[in-house]
Design goal:
heterodimer; A: 546 residues; mainly alpha; MetI-like fold; 2 domains; globular; B: six-stranded mixed beta sheet
Chain lengths: 546, 341
């Protein structure tokens, strides 16, 4: 009995495998070293650059105010649009099945540049609706297209935060109390529902705004052809199309501007999302609030935003030559054949390798960090530091990576991989940390009291509960890294093209059929990997609000 | 029971389906104005479902519900909750976290278009009456459970509802409040002249609060009668088990209401109906002893079967002791094909 008592008392509140000193020290060393090398050093270089050469930065800003202005306008219009749509959809989908939820979340799963390309195939000139009804979305290439696409791509953020709030809170009960107090449906909505959802709406709005400001794929596909450049496309243009010092300085200035734009919002997010989540499982009862009409509107939305564009892309990919009617007689697999040969298959290999390596590294590092963050304040500081690269725009991370590692690593896969680890580390840490937080030490103690050693107790008591979280973390990192465009488009060299970059160059080269085939392949891989994530009701992992 | 005024709540043949499953079947219930009916049953019996149907939170499949004679549900009619003149007290309080106590209590008047100052004054009166006068500026999360539920009660009553619906209002409260609050609710119902429907799974709470106790199981009312009636003369073995401790033995009923053990009739015996250490009584063996504070509960094994006996004072016999007992009072259960004990 004495042995059992000491074993139990040696396990502190949230201990795990780190009961012994040596592994604990090792974990600290690994995490601090990686955080310093991958996160702190590049970001520090970027800040130092800004402090060191303020004149050059200022010059860059003054020289080009239009990207800043465009970004501000795009964010200012697309964010309220996204929040309104996200709120409406979340209310309608409150009792809807997983299929509709997946449909609404599709823009989050399909990479933005694929969505933008798909919209062009659906609603552009010579697109699907042009073929069928003669409808062409006016202004698709330019501000209208950019803002609309940024808005529908940001809808999943407020949708997810509001859905989580509806699921976690006792919204239904509180609304019933208002009904019984004499308020009609409209009054209940304005006096009870909306005020209750305010924190979730604010969090969703911040995420949507940050996403819209940081996005590169959409303005690259529909903005640049219409000469509507945003900060992210301006950085891309400065770095890709000219090699002089001045344009690099301009790119740094734009990146810092983007930082300033996004940082306060990202900082506010931590506070906003601190709403306690206490799912009272199975409280669902009665029918949905919006009924059949609302549900059909939601399905219509999914069809217009994702369904028709993806269908159009599939048809373009299947149709032998661009301009032919997308009918079975004209179908062939030539574009898919082109998509998986030559440079494209090399790019595909690069992306798979990068995604696998990033997922493996992020899972290990994320797990270690999650353990540290639950043990001490220093661990939580490290956690905050590591979360920074994910909150900042990808263009900023890419510039920081160039500043830090360009000398030996210019244009290699390694520099892209390092940037991916920096960016996605926190993404892997979150689900694992959440799972760790939900574990009770009594499971460990029970195993130890039954005679298991520390390692075995951990294996029996905690691992079964942690394994799904680790799988989710790996899958999430893999998908994000696999179709990542912003960072790789700024860092790639002749020998390190990624599949996303290949799609972008095929699109810019006007090779519509191959682009469509590549886009379809990308969308399929992303969807396959995402379905288990969405199915497990952990939609919040996508938005980083968990 | 004295003669009842016309019913303020009338349920006729009410059936409710939730998620494709029948939860209530062909259910009849009357509640008179100024009276309280307790819906007593185990969880899942359909008590809260019936309450939600009366409030208008869920639709009914068949039958009809009338409030003050007005058809509110059934026969193609459906009056939404806000136009049923009901007040609801919720198990989890359901206080709006973004409002102050004062705003919450005034809300039912404000949404019905009362002038702001008038609503404010009435809210203050109600808060003072329920001992919450000092808390008007607080938010719900700054209140104790009991205070929160009093705020819920004030909100439910301020607009003078015709029907007060209480859904296990004491389930989350501590033991002292569980005995206090039902009495307060009863007083308020009587004073306001509303009809009260009070859902609970605790028989003693149902007896304290109600004029009529309706015992529910599997979506049906098994018996609806005065508390003493339900307790002493349950309609079935199930009702007996849901309304308190009871033992079921085979015996013969004497004309004076006491029982002769053993015998041929199925009898229900409440623990306090058994006398211990009686000369010439039935010989029994003590199997288990539980001190309950107000007395001691013995589980006895006798030729007639297992018998629960409650006697005043501290334990006098230990397990294994032999004791003679007599059943002072018993109730012959109506013959039903029931086997469970």
């Amino acid at each position: 009995m004495q042995g059992v008592a000491t074993a139990a008392s040696r396990v502190p509140r949230r201990a795990g495998i780190l009961t012994y000193r040596v592994p604990q020290l090792l974990v600290w060393v690994v995490c601090i070293a990686c955080a310093a090398a991958v996160v702190a050093f590049p970001l520090g270089r970027l800040v130092w650059q800004a402090v060191d050469a303020p004149a050059a930065s200022l010059g860059g800003v003054v020289a080009s105010t239009s990207p800043l202005l465009h970004t501000l306008v795009a964010v200012a219009i697309s964010t309220p649009l996204a929040v309104a749509l996200g709120l409406a959809l979340a209310l309608v989908c409150q009792r809807a099945g997983p299929a509709l939820r997946l449909g609404v979340l599709l823009p989050l799963i399909v990479p933005p540049f694929v969505s933008a390309f798909a919209w062009v195939q659906a609603y552009g000139a010579a697109g699907l609706t042009d073929h069928l009804t003669g409808f062409v979305l006016p202004g698709l290439f330019g501000p209208v297209g950019v803002i609309l696409l940024l808005a529908v791509n940001a809808v999943p953020f407020p949708f997810a935060t509001v859905s989580a709030a509806l699921l976690a809170g006792r919204t239904r009960r509180l609304e019933e109390a208002a009904r019984a107090s004499g308020a009609d449906a409209r009054k209940v909505f304005t006096t009870v529902t909306l005020p209750l959802l305010r924190p979730a709406l604010a969090a969703g709005a911040v995420l949507a705004a940050v996403g819209a400001a940081s996005d590169f794929g959409i303005p690259a596909v529909v903005g640049m052809p219409g000469h509507f450049s945003t900060l992210t496309t301006a950085i891309y243009a400065d770095l890709s199309f000219s090699a002089d010092r001045a344009s690099f300085a301009a790119a740094i200035a734009q990146a810092l501007l983007l930082c300033l734009l996004v940082a306060p919002a990202a900082a506010a997010l931590g506070r906003l999302t601190e709403t306690p989540v206490a799912p009272d499982g199975g409280a669902v009862r009665g029918t949905g609030r919006a009924g059949r009409w609302g549900l059909s509107m939601a399905w219509l939305y999914v069809a217009v935003v994702s369904g028709v564009p993806l269908l159009a892309t599939v048809l373009v990919a299947l149709t032998r030559a661009y301009g032919l009617a997308p009918l079975p007689v004209n179908w062939s697999l030539v574009h898919f054949a082109a998509a998986v040969t030559g440079d494209n298959v090399v790019a595909l290999g690069h992306s798979v390798a990068l995604a696998l390596a990033a997922a493996a590294a992020c899972c290990v590092l994320g797990g270690l960090l999650a353990v540290l963050a639950r043990r001490s304040a220093a661990g939580r500081w490290l956690q905050t530091l590591v979360a920074l690269p994910f909150a900042l725009p990808g263009s900023v991370i890419a510039i920081a990576a160039i500043l830090a590692w360009n000398q030996p690593l210019h244009g290699t896969l390694l520099i892209i991989g390092l940037a991916y680890v920096a960016r996605f580390w926190t993404l892997a840490e979150r689900p694992i940390g959440a799972a760790l937080g939900g574990l009770s030490p009594s499971r460990l103690r029970a195993a130890q009291a039954a005679g298991a050693g520390p390692l075995r107790a951990w294996w029996v008591g905690w691992w079964p509960a942690l394994a799904p979280a680790c799988a989710a973390a790996g899958l999430l990192t893999f998908v994000q890294a696999f179709h990542e465009l912003t960072i790789s488009s700024l860092l790639y060299g002749p020998g390190s093209t990624t599949i996303a970059v290949a799609v972008l160059s095929a699109d810019q080269g006007g090779d519509v059929g191959t682009t469509a085939a590549l886009a379809v392949l990308l969308a399929i891989v992303s969807l396959l990997a995402a379905i288990p994530l969405v199915g497990s009701r952990r939609a919040s992992v996508w938005t980083g609000t968990s | 029971m004295s003669e009842l005024p016309p019913a303020a709540v009338q349920c006729r043949g009410v059936a409710v389906h939730l998620g494709g499953r029948a939860v209530l079947h062909d259910l009849d219930l009357d509640v008179a104005a100024g009276r309280v009916v307790a819906l007593l049953g185990a969880s899942g019996a359909g008590k809260s479902t019936l309450l939600n149907a009366i409030a208008g939170f869920i639709p009914i499949e068949a039958g009809e519900i009338r409030l003050d004679g007005r058809l509110v549900a059934g026969g193609g009619a459906f009056v939404p909750p806000e136009r049923r003149r009901v007040g609801v007290v919720f198990q989890d309080y359901a206080l709006w976290p973004h409002m102050t106590v004062h705003q919450i209590v005034a809300y039912p008047l404000i949404v019905r278009g009362a002038p702001r100052h008038e609503a404010g004054e009435r809210a203050e009166q109600w808060l003072a009456r329920l001992g919450l006068g000092d808390l008007a500026g607080r938010r719900p999360d700054q209140l104790s459970g009991g205070q929160q539920q009093r705020v819920g009660l004030a909100r439910a009553l301020i607009a003078e509802p015709r029907v007060l619906l209480c859904d296990e209002p004491t389930a989350n409260l501590d033991a002292r409040l569980r005995t206090e609050l039902p009495g307060e609710i009863r007083d308020e119902v009587v004073r306001s002249g509303a009809a009260g429907v009070y859902v609970t799974h605790d028989p003693s709470e149902a007896f304290t609060v109600a004029d009529v106790v309706a015992v529910l199981e599997a979506g049906r009312i098994l018996q609806a009668a005065g508390p003493a009636e339900v307790y002493a003369r349950p309609a079935s073995q199930t009702v007996a088990a849901l309304t308190g401790l009871a033992s079921f033995v085979r015996g013969g009923l004497r004309p004076d209401g006491s029982a002769e053990l053993p015998g041929g009739t199925l009898l229900m015996v409440r623990p306090e109906w058994v006398d211990l250490a009686v000369d010439g009584g039935l010989q029994a063996r003590v199997v288990d002893v539980r001190f309950t504070g107000d007395g001691t509960l013995y589980r006895l094994d006798s030729d007639a079967g297992c018998l629960l006996a409650h006697a005043g004072g501290e334990p006098r016999w230990g397990a294994g002791a032999a004791v003679s007992c007599a059943v002072r009072r018993a109730w012959a259960l109506p013959q039903q094909p029931e086997t469970s004990g």
